[in-house]
Amino acid sequence: MFHHIKELQYNAKPTKPDPVYAKKLQEVLGGQYGEITVMMQYLFQGWNCRGDQKYRDMLLDIGTEEIAHVEMLANMIAQLLDGAPAKEQDAAAQDPVIESVLGGMNPQHMIVSGLGAKPDDSAGYPWNARYTIGSGNLLADFRANLNAESQGRLQVVRLYESTTDPGVRDMLSFLIARDTMHQNQWMAAIEELEQTQKALVPSTFPQENEKQEVSYSFMNFSKGEESAQGRWANGPSYDGQGTFEYVATPEAMGQVPILNPAPAYIHGTPVNGSIPPDTGTSAFDKS
Amino acid sequence: MFHHIKELQYNAKPTKPDPVYAKKLQEVLGGQYGEITVMMQYLFQGWNCRGDQKYRDMLLDIGTEEIAHVEMLANMIAQLLDGAPAKEQDAAAQDPVIESVLGGMNPQHMIVSGLGAKPDDSAGYPWNARYTIGSGNLLADFRANLNAESQGRLQVVRLYESTTDPGVRDMLSFLIARDTMHQNQWMAAIEELEQTQKALVPSTFPQENEKQEVSYSFMNFSKGEESAQGRWANGPSYDGQGTFEYVATPEAMGQVPILNPAPAYIHGTPVNGSIPPDTGTSAFDKS
Amino acid sequence: MFHHIKELQYNAKPTKPDPVYAKKLQEVLGGQYGEITVMMQYLFQGWNCRGDQKYRDMLLDIGTEEIAHVEMLANMIAQLLDGAPAKEQDAAAQDPVIESVLGGMNPQHMIVSGLGAKPDDSAGYPWNARYTIGSGNLLADFRANLNAESQGRLQVVRLYESTTDPGVRDMLSFLIARDTMHQNQWMAAIEELEQTQKALVPSTFPQENEKQEVSYSFMNFSKGEESAQGRWANGPSYDGQGTFEYVATPEAMGQVPILNPAPAYIHGTPVNGSIPPDTGTSAFDKS
Amino acid sequence: MFHHIKELQYNAKPTKPDPVYAKKLQEVLGGQYGEITVMMQYLFQGWNCRGDQKYRDMLLDIGTEEIAHVEMLANMIAQLLDGAPAKEQDAAAQDPVIESVLGGMNPQHMIVSGLGAKPDDSAGYPWNARYTIGSGNLLADFRANLNAESQGRLQVVRLYESTTDPGVRDMLSFLIARDTMHQNQWMAAIEELEQTQKALVPSTFPQENEKQEVSYSFMNFSKGEESAQGRWANGPSYDGQGTFEYVATPEAMGQVPILNPAPAYIHGTPVNGSIPPDTGTSAFDKS
Amino acid sequence: MFHHIKELQYNAKPTKPDPVYAKKLQEVLGGQYGEITVMMQYLFQGWNCRGDQKYRDMLLDIGTEEIAHVEMLANMIAQLLDGAPAKEQDAAAQDPVIESVLGGMNPQHMIVSGLGAKPDDSAGYPWNARYTIGSGNLLADFRANLNAESQGRLQVVRLYESTTDPGVRDMLSFLIARDTMHQNQWMAAIEELEQTQKALVPSTFPQENEKQEVSYSFMNFSKGEESAQGRWANGPSYDGQGTFEYVATPEAMGQVPILNPAPAYIHGTPVNGSIPPDTGTSAFDKS
Amino acid sequence: MFHHIKELQYNAKPTKPDPVYAKKLQEVLGGQYGEITVMMQYLFQGWNCRGDQKYRDMLLDIGTEEIAHVEMLANMIAQLLDGAPAKEQDAAAQDPVIESVLGGMNPQHMIVSGLGAKPDDSAGYPWNARYTIGSGNLLADFRANLNAESQGRLQVVRLYESTTDPGVRDMLSFLIARDTMHQNQWMAAIEELEQTQKALVPSTFPQENEKQEVSYSFMNFSKGEESAQGRWANGPSYDGQGTFEYVATPEAMGQVPILNPAPAYIHGTPVNGSIPPDTGTSAFDKS
């Protein structure tokens, strides 16, 4: 269960309206790596958590904090939209500055949300749940989380440098700091899990069941061998189970595939000009 | 530019058809963490790469290999569908086994693709490009890649254990082994980058510009303090820049937000029963 | 079955082209609450209608009218696009007015539709069928319809005030008037249904089967009690079955959830460092 | 800002696992009218609220409660999945009951989420933000909310009757009761707003600007006049501004549309066999 | 403007309910090549038509007919759902036939639409507007239409053979016949347009502006030359402008791409370990 | 299996950056008819091909070439973005040219991809797999391919005329030429298939099973008979099986649909005020 506190977690007050920037800021609210994504991802990972209670608690702590970040951004965007122009086309055409604001805004901020934030990204694309993952394997999921916080901090930093509004920068400096913490947090949690299990996800699959002769081979599928210079092509593997090797000219190991003709009821392409009889039954019937 | 080799990278031959399993196998072909995702993610990261050429080459090597994995899965699924039943409802209703196959199949495998693989996931949802990321920051992106290979290997392992078909298991054992390599590869590449820059993404943002008093604080937003037990709540931070602290009762630091009334042309809700006059102009006009 | 009349239901003639406005006008054609939505929603509600024939007839009447509204908007947008500039970047860069038109247009109006309307919204997002509902319960659906006409009229009014083109305003004044009717129509139909059944949807579920102690309680989940001032917190309920009460400090009534560990074949996170044996079978097998 | 309480708002304990039912229950978690929808809709309406503070507070109260409903459903679904079978195809083919469970499950519950809830609907389609609305006009939005609670309660009732598990029914009886309250709440809030403004949304648009001769006309666009029998075709209108009239044979009031030929750079279809010269400039250039 | 006729264009009466088949039949209602697609595609092509009036009229004739096909399918599906079981899980587990029906149904047909048709496909995926095209070039669009009718007829034929219900087959035999006409119609219209312009779309682009040395070359990008046997590799080209040639070993004609480093404000990957200074300005500023 | 060649298939070097054009060019990379679409469509058609090996080989040849086109466009877009401005709002507001560039850019090119190409269209909408088709019937699919190449060439031509950059035009002239070849190729392949089977898709369905009295009738569903003038209304049909006829006033041939009331467990609308008893069982149970 949840409770709401009226105060925002941190200040969210722009110095002045800026509807074009409001459109851009939507990216870190409702984009692929925006705050809605981490909010939903952490909450669902917490609710589905079948591991130690400290992980469930930690996931719900951070998931709950992310709701507050969504709240800050929504309030910020609403204020940035305060001055959205509704001026009609004719006048605007004579004032390129106003017109370029109109052109640079998300029109839905005026028509649909009435100067409110939307759960969409900076291209106006709605947030969707396929941005999130909760797999039931916490090591896998914490890597997803570290990635999300890395992409997220990168995007907030880019937005920080795209504005000079001190109020906006103040709020973003808070979000950047929290992303610093959250990247560190997931690195810490990953190391902890890698110590209790192996670094390979999932650690519980018997490796003798995998095709081990290709488990540590870097395969060079292009002309040129620049890719041989990396750590991935030499030395011990990171799971401590093998040694990287560089395969300069990997060979195909499989068959040339030839598929059976489709049964008549599929009405596929006749093979060699001969049309199979339309029996009305399927290959399956015959078995 | 690319060339095609007729042989598959590895064998993809099921022992017998299994259209219900074909539906499930679509997940690792066209799902959120399927082979199309890593194919497109690595290729685009390679094409957009502004870093050292060895990274571009490496990304395109592995992206090119992933096209071959898509190819193997597509051919496997087509063969698993060979025996898809078309039997009409009446007869099937008397044979629960056939009926349950019909119920468990993806109907589009018969109606739409004519017993061919689709670029969709196991729920029939089409692959889309928001599954991928290429940010221009390789450390961020390699973390995305490590996550994708972790989720992907986990899914393939689950599918491996859901079948006893030796031909299917043979192919999956190859994909699992390659995912072993690819997880190791991204761990290696991540370490290499963390040595030339800092572990924090992006490493180039001056940390004095972030709100540093909250950069290493774990905030406990729930009743109970199980979350205090983790590595993330104590000791030095992973970027080597600070020390984790546990904030048991975090306080709100921001304002209680109060938004301005909307201008008349928005036709929002009248505040306190008073309707603002409909001037036909906007707040922006007045400035 | 349907017939087409060549004349539009009402005039749709702009005074002059305006490709930036064409982009905005797409919202009420192909947006969440655009004319395609109500067209499809009313037609499907009519076709699926299992109630009195007068409702089916009424739904198909209004659904048929909405096809005509889609037609008017499509024709209007095509005409607004007549003057879409194709001027190349260099020249435009010297003429900010042309450039801002290029920037404010939907580029697909030129590249994809060749100066034609698209079934998309003002952010370029395609219409999709999850915008509509037909539940088989007409009272529920008429509330959906009243909402759609309320949102729709609000959006058209905002667009009316964003242009001074007398031809566009003339057409929009017609659509606004029809939305006036349609809001009134759904209010009338709702009242009629609330008189033959109860106001609660669905009216046929025995209320003794619901947890009646919380059926009329407003729960205050935030600091501060401004929400106690509303009609929803005092007095008789609107379905005539209870009395609103205000719960200032709602208590949790449920368990602290603890989930079972996942079976081995899921390869979840080992609990307390102990990895369950990989038996290759499932919990389900044992039952 | 938000706080999390470890206890669920109400019990969420199934009597036994039922993975087929888990798939169905996803509808009211992540579907068009599931709990994620109302959670996000109420929170965003609250954050964007520019009206009286009691509305903002009320919206955030109920939005915060809905997060708890999402939490209950997620925990319930995870427990319903406890017994998801992983049995391989061969054995299952001999046991139609197991096979039909496999066929009736959402395969992603096993492959992707590892027996956890997903933010998806019962067809496996991911939740997306276009399910929500926050328009800045509270009367419009409260109608959206009343609709959402009507559709939602209807769906939960249908799911209640699709199971006999007493634990599941207990939880659903709580959700149904809360939906009873929430329908009543929005009816109360709607009446309150209709008293301070008019029933027509938006109430602030001058009606003399709409084409008033069609503002209260029901138009019969089909053969037969069953639709004349409804309250919408006779008597005073619900906004108190007019009288319904029934137009048995509505006439077209608009032009037969004829569009201009496209400029050459569009490469449209030559009209009457004559291809316009490819000037490389646009109609816009000439103006 | 449109009128509705109460009678269906053709009979749509199943002999008995079949909810599993109802799910499949959704494909040709709301799928990629279902009737909603052709309805919307033809109507928008008609409304946007800038060519001869006979094309506009023809497109609107056929688009109007397609609304009637959507109507027939919606009514058919509603009737096929009449017998959808609501039986609870326990009993069903003892009756595999009922259970397999439950497993094979689209659960939304019960929970969401209350035994009504949905504008979705057979995988439960909602129809969306990106299934349609109207480009302003009728030859291009008529090829899209011929494709849609080819895919559509193929799918209806497959569905025809998946049922033995005489009522369903009767309706499908009508739709198949109309698809026969519509394929023929688009072939006729295509030939007519190819006679007034060239077969190449668009015919109005000066071919001297294209890289003509590769305009008629088939390039063999794979090992083996089976592809040399087709008509596409020999003889005159179909636009009458060239001669096909087979290029057995196509050479790359372009550069090895090397991208510039990103400016500092992008926070990309440092090149060769050197981090560009964070100047806070962009490359663009300097120009 | 695939190999990568470092050189691009053809040059992709712009003369100078142009971030607004980069946004537009995304259409032919990741749009409905962009290069990703044809790449994925041809590869999947090839992998699923159950016909003659020359078709499989040919499809994989051209699919492999399309990967190279995706590569060229991605590299071109990355270079066009080199000069994307990051200038802050204040300064830009004084320089309308810069501001209009900011307004005309896709903001995700800066925030998300860090000056890299995205697998999206020009409206920022992500590529999805429902853009593609592989039906198992090659004649149907080759018509899809001819359409894709027609729409694609049309869009590239429009983009060619929207720029004067000689480097961009050089690359586009290559893509236009390849589209010339590919349109010709599909025309050739279609003719070849129409000679070995009939022109009607599918050719294997017995036409006596279709409702032949309407197989060659053009039905006039609108006022006016301009549509009678086309080739589709007169003369022999294109499949050589019938003669077109023009039906000026088509009659409805079907029933007036009346649906059964829903069973009680659906909680639909009570018919004629009478609420069916809530038996808790379904119509299905009774059979």
TrEMBL record, chains A, B, C, D, E, F:
From the UniProt record, which GO molecular function terms apply? metal ion binding
Q: What organism is this sequence from?
A: Lentibacillus halodurans
- List the Gene3D superfamilies hit by this protein, alphabetically: 1.20.1260.10, manganese catalase, domain 2, chain A
**SUPFAM superfamilies xrefs:** Ferritin-like
- The answer on whether this UniProt entry bears the keyword Membrane reads no
Q: How does the cofactor attach, per the note?
A: Binds 2 manganese ions per subunit. Binds 1 Ca(2+) ion per subunit.
Record bears the keyword Ligase: no
UniProt: Ca(2+) binding residues:
57, 61, 220, 222, 224
The entry's keywords: Calcium, Manganese, Metal-binding
What protein name is recorded for this chain?
Mn-containing catalase
**Which residues hold Mn(2+) 1?**
35, 69, 149, 182
Listed binding positions for Mn(2+) 2 are: 66
Q: Which family does it belong to?
A: Belongs to the manganese catalase family.
Name the cofactor(s) required for activity, per the record: Mn(2+); Ca(2+)
